[in-house]
Amino acid sequence: MTIQRFETGPRMSQIVVHGDTVYLAGIVAHTAAGESVTKQTQEVLSIIDDHLAKAGSDKSKLLTATIYLTDMKKFAEMNAVWDRWVSAGNTPARATVEVKLAAPKYSVEIMVTAAR
Asked: pTM for the full model?
């Protein structure tokens, strides 16, 4: 079975496809970095939509999601954006954890796996 990699750099690939499974690296907001959790989550989910499309998938085929938040007090704020975005009836298995991210300007990072 072939492995396809997209947006590959020396450290990681943003998208890896193996068979009918799409793996995305953790996604952070670049334009909205340093802004509210709402704005960062909106940008991250938009990037996820773009990456899934590039791999021949979409959010209705999500299998798992891991959400990293720097402050669990922002859980409801992030969920408000997530709930408007996620495909009704096709919600993935999901975990949300509080972490320290790579830079203080990032408040949310999301990593997903999807079917094609």
From this structure: 0.97
